[in-house]
Design brief:
By secondary structure, this protein is α+β, with helices and mostly antiparallel strands. The chain has eight helices and nine strands. Helix 4 packs antiparallel against helix 6. The N and C termini lie far apart (136 Å).
């Protein structure tokens, strides 16, 4: 657009120059003049239209003066002298990671903080945020277009370091992780809001402890697992001992009931039955060795 206006002005200057020189090309001066005017008009006309893509807003400025109104997505007719800067209002993410080429900056960009017990903890973090459309002119005027480096990164890193000192390293790694995440979310959210940014989510991707602390935690976990395993074995042995005790008690109760239920005559009857069995066996022996009568029994 501006380029068309510059080309048109060059054509006008060239047309006046040819006319004054009285050269063979002087009869083309009027043609160059007409083309120059048309190109300038085309450049002015095209600069009056500005298209804003979906998910963005346009911030207008005139010779350094930022206009308070923003241009929503769509086609707009504007002052051709205005300069329009696009701002992305969709959700953006800024990752700070220890893994190379995984974060917003190359290399190790993780956040190193000191815990309450004086240990260094390394935190990988992702910030999800977006621009408040109505505050885009304020951001452009006070911060500029590189708000990631001026606001998102330094505010996030500072607030995390400020809040990490309230927790010891093991608590950050395990029991207090969600509490720590909620705490830093509230403080960062307030800072972002005052600067025209909306904090949507704060994701703690990883917390790395010093090797000595990791080894201590692993040793403790292994000890707890061994203790739970031993407790299970003891519980199983107790249950088996209880089963045997109940079984023995049942047998003893059965024998007691049988012994209490047998009368003297029942015992005599059982004795006679046993003797009869012996007599029948003796009859077979007497068949070969001599005859002997069995005694008769009665009650």
């Amino acid at each position: 657009m501006v380029l068309l206006i510059i080309i048109g002005i060059i054509l006008l200057v060239l047309s006046f120059s040819l006319k004054n020189n009285q050269s063979q090309l002087s009869h083309f001066s009027n043609l160059f003049r007409i083309i120059g005017f048309l190109v300038i008009l085309l450049g002015i006309f095209s600069s009056m239209f500005k298209q804003i893509d979906a998910g963005k807003v346009g911030v207008q400025s005139l010779y350094g003066s930022v206009q308070p109104d923003v241009l929503e997505s769509g086609l707009h007719i504007i002052n051709p002298l205005l300069d329009v800067t696009d701002f992305d209002i969709q959700t953006q993410n800024y990752t700070m990671s220890a893994v190379h080429n995984e974060g917003a900056q190359a290399g190790d960009d993780a956040i190193r903080v000191l815990s309450n017990d004086g240990l260094e903890v390394v935190i990988d973090l992702t910030v999800l945020y977006r621009i408040t459309p109505a505050d885009a002119p304020k951001i452009f005027k006070q911060i500029g277009v590189n708000y990631n480096d001026k606001i998102v990164r330094p505010v996030t890193r500072t607030r995390i370091r400020d809040n990490a000192v309230y927790y010891d390293a093991v608590a950050l790694y395990s029991t207090k992780r969600n509490e720590f995440q909620q705490r830093i979310f509230k403080t960062i959210e307030a800072d972002f809001k005052s600067r025209g940014l909306i904090l949507e989510q704060l994701l703690i991707r990883n917390i790395n402890l010093p090797p000595s602390v990791k080894a201590s935690i692993e040793s403790k976990i292994n000890a707890e697992q061994d203790a739970q395993k031993m407790q299970f074995v003891l519980q199983k042995e107790k249950q088996e001992a209880e089963r045997k005790r109940v079984e023995a008690q049942g047998i003893a109760d059965y024998q007691h009931i049988i012994s209490m239920g047998l009368t003297e005559k029942q015992l005599q009857y059982e004795q006679i039955k046993a003797q009869k069995r012996n007599c029948h066996f003796s009859q077979y022996q007497n068949y070969f060795y001599g005859k002997r009568k069995c005694a008769s029994y009665s009650f």
